[in-house]
Amino acid sequence: MERTVTVVPEAGLHARPASKLVQAANRFDADVSIGRADDGDDGLVRADSMLSVSGLNVGHGESVRVVAEGADAEAALDAVCDLLTSAVDEGGESGNDGDGEAE
Amino acid sequence: MTTLTGVGSTPLSGAGTARWYRPEADLTLPDPPEPSAVDADAELSRFEAARDEAREAIRRARDRTAARVGEDEAAVFDAHEGFLDDPELVGDVEDAIGDGVVAEHAVHDRFAAAIEQFEALDGRMAERADDLRDVRDRLLRALLNVDGLTDLGDLPDGTVLLAERLTPSDTAELNPDAVAAIATVAGGRTAHAAIIARSLSIPAVVGVGESLRDVADGDDVLVDGTDGWVVVDPDPAERAAADADEAAAIAERVATADGRPVEVAANVGSEAELAPAADRGADGIGLFRTEFLFLDREAPPSEDEQYEAVTAALSAFPDDRVVVRTLDVGGDKQVPYLDLPSEGNPFLGRRGIRLSLDEHRDLFETQLRALLRAAASEDGDGLAVMFPLVSRLEEVDAALDAVESAAADLDAAGVDHAVPELGAMVETPAAVFLADRLADRLDFLSIGTNDLAQYVMAADRENDGVADYHDPLHPAVLRAVDRTTSAAAGTDAWVGMCGEMAGDPALTELLVGLGLDELSMSAVTVPAVKERVRAVDAADATALAEAALACETRAEVRDALGLDGD
């Protein structure tokens, strides 16, 4: 299953938002991948890799596609898309912090 | 016994075991063995062990940075851990090992490829390349058993830290209980790192020069921050002499030998510094930086919280003056939630009073209400408030209006309040030229020599390329100080100084001669400056100041003051 969302954090997928996303993807058994919506399947990279996620160089306001496959795919999608669409700034105030850590 | 000479930066002495901090240590790899000679399983275990070691170090650094500096600064270590555990990087390294490459070469080559990729991207991604280098070096150090000192917060007790230079964040990471002293090859006593070392009361000598490199790890070293000496293999007499140099705290107020009183106060940037400042005999606080109340948090502090912080400072010094500086951010001091603009030239941009009167007027009004309430509290008589980075009289008039309307609001609400002494910082050439008019409007002026030297000399404080310009002993800066004190001399306003210059005992006589009524400094230098004040004769001091003001170059000024050439 997959979802396409617009990246809300000001910093885009860098620094703290990228670390958080990678940590989130690592918590699930599902294989999660992520890429620019326009780049199709070729643009997808592993969401559990800091190197790949920050290498995407995705900025605020860009449209990204998240694909998850596996038993807990839906929960993984929820967690990852939550991070992508909440205004976590680099200062880290986010109403979603708690949700993520509850896993 | 060998004695090296530098610039005393924290006037305390400390002795211990030398340890070099070499963040750029050369991690040269041995030539790779033939693939057939490589035991892949053993190499995989070495890699695994190195990752464990690096992970532990990263987590320690993270926790320490979060506790001492803040969560924001600590977040970078999460990214480091992310790279350390990156399945693609780890997988690639393990594949290479499987093909017969030893662990250190596999790490080096795979990280090199990733670093190159990031460097090809824009500026922000280049920072990620630095993160990758940091992680790579941790792994290589573990694999090569290089005892590289990379963990500044985790030094063994009795360490005398030696370095080319230290950055402010390096210094903030130090544990003052473990670090007996610091000595650096480069840097001056007004560098931010030196200021932080003083606020942590770590004995320090900076700018020792090339000869420091001859000191080896493990050497027994004495750092005498009063005289600016680094002594290798000191004999017991030398140690005793250095200890005796440290001035004892003088609790009472001091005056020159001929009876001119000089207030010697402390600069304080957190509540934790209040008690040590009182212990060292400070006559009150000459600069209470309120920024700490605003940092490391998600929203500005409430009026009550600020009131509590200011009354805590007042009750630590019930019989003395406490000069509170209103919020001074912008420039190099950023507060994430304030959304300060990113500027091409932040030191010449939106900072200090400019923000308080405009985009952050709400914060200013809240702060003024807290201060006016504190002025009416039990020890509130000693409160004084000053405005940073004043460059126009309109700013002072607007700030005074804001004080008046805060008082009117509190009055209307029936809240106890009083108007404290009000003053301005003299940090800009504009304020120097307007000092007579500032003194007419205000109760006091406080000269901030760090920024004043920066602006008078047009030399960025943080740019090593112009470090030479950033010295208050340049004739132009001395004249700016003199012009300020002279302008206020005929008025009721008193003039103080709260820059690093004020805390240098070698300059006390000059400053007394220039007519300063108050000197405010890192608490650790208060005893030495008080001792100096007592030894000064005011008439001699005036003659010395006149001689210094007549000089045409810094070298002549230093000569007139009897200081070594630079």
How many domains make up the coordinates of chain A?
1
What is the name of the CATH architecture of chain A?
A: 2-Layer Sandwich
CATH fold assignment of the largest domain in chain B: TIM Barrel
CATH class of chain A: Alpha Beta
Query: H/E series of chain A, N to C?
Result: EHEEHEHH
Q: Per the principal axes of the C-alpha atoms, what is the gross shape of chain B?
A: globular
Percent helix of chain A: 25-40%
* Beta content of chain B: 5-15%
> What is the number of beta strands of chain A?
4
Rg over C-alpha atoms of chain A, rounded to the nearest angstrom: 12 Å
Shape of chain A: globular
Distance between the termini of chain B: 25 Å
The number of helices of chain B is 21
Quote the average pLDDT of chain A. 81
When the domains of chain B are counted, the total is 3
* Protein chain pair with the most extensive contact, residues per chain: A-B, 23 and 25 residues
* Neighbour order of strands in the largest sheet of chain A: 1-4-2-3
Structural classification of chain B: alpha/beta
Low-pLDDT ranges of chain B: none
CATH superfamily heading of the largest domain in chain B: Phosphoenolpyruvate-binding domains
Structure, described:
The complex is a heterodimer of chains A (about 100) and B (about 575). Chain A has about 100 residues and is α+β, with helices and mostly antiparallel strands. Chain A has one domain (about 1-85): HPr-like (Histidine-containing Protein, Chain: A). Chain A contains 4 helices and 4 strands, in the order E-H-E-E-H-E-H-H. Chain A has helices at about 15-25, 50-55, 75-85, 95-100, and strands at about 1-5, 30-35, 45, 65-70. In chain A, helix 1 packs antiparallel against helix 3 (about 75-85). The radius of gyration of chain A is 12 Å and the shape is globular. By secondary structure, chain B is α/β, with parallel strands linked by helices. Chain B has 3 domains: about 1-20 and about 150-245, Phosphohistidine domain (Glucose Oxidase, domain 1), CATH 3.50.30; about 35-145, Enzyme I, Chain A, domain 2; about 260-535, TIM Barrel, CATH 3.20.20.60. Chain B has helices at about 40-70, 70-85, 85-100, 105-120, 125-145, 170-175, 190-200, 235-245, 275-280, 305-315, 355, 360-375, 395-410, 430-435, 435-440, 450-455, 475-490, 510-515, 525-535, 540-550, 555-560, and strands spanning about 1-5, 5-10, 15-20, 160-165, 180-185, 205, 220-225, 230, 255, 260-270, 285-290, 320-325, 385, 420-425, 445, 495, 520. In chain B, strands 1-8-7-3-4-5-6-2 form an 8-stranded mixed sheet. Chain B has an 8-stranded parallel β-barrel with strand order 10-11-12-13-14-15-16-17, surrounded by 7 helices. In chain B, helix 4 packs antiparallel against helix 5 (about 125-145) and helix 20 (about 540-550) runs antiparallel to helix 21 (about 555-560). The model of chain B has no long low-confidence stretch (mean pLDDT about 90).
